[in-house]
Design a protein that fits this description.
Rossmann fold, 5 strands
Length: 138
């Protein structure tokens, strides 16, 4: 079953109707649900999104996000493992010229492990790490 990775930048953009890319994200998201069997994210991404939404949009929006992740049979939230985190450290050292976060590097490790090539993200770090992005970067 083909999978696409969903980054924090996409989740936040979907949730924030005032975000400059919200319309674009809201158009892409249903297409991804139709095209891909699973939308994959991680517990680290979910934690990042929760805090961003909590601070920017308030508790109800942050809780709604958590509920939506849990309720969707198409969204798979995978937990970081020691193996993924060790690989993330290798990535962080290898790409020392980039300002990847630890969460980014774990995401890259997970994508490589699961052979996921496409990320739904507004974070150009995914392209810098060699992954395809939707929407396509300009």
């Amino acid at each position: 079953m083909e999978e696409v990775f969903v980054d924090a930048s996409a989740w936040v953009t979907l949730a924030d109707k005032d975000d400059v890319h919200h319309k674009e994200a809201a158009t892409i998201y249903p297409e991804l649900l139709k095209r891909y069997g699973r939308l994959v994210t991680t517990n680290l991404v979910v934690g990042e999104v929760y805090m961003i939404l909590r601070r920017a949009l308030g508790l109800p929006q942050a809780i709604s996000f958590l509920d939506g992740i849990k309720a969707s049979p198409r969204i798979v939230k995978l937990c970081s493992t020691e193996e993924l985190e060790e690989e993330a450290e290798v990535i962080l050292r290898h790409y020392s010229d980039q300002d990847f976060s630890f969460t980014d590097a774990v995401s890259f490790s997970l994508m490589a492990q699961r052979k996921i090539r496409l990320a739904f993200a507004f974070d150009r770090h995914f392209a810098a790490a060699g992954f395809a992005l939707t929407p396509n970067p300009i």
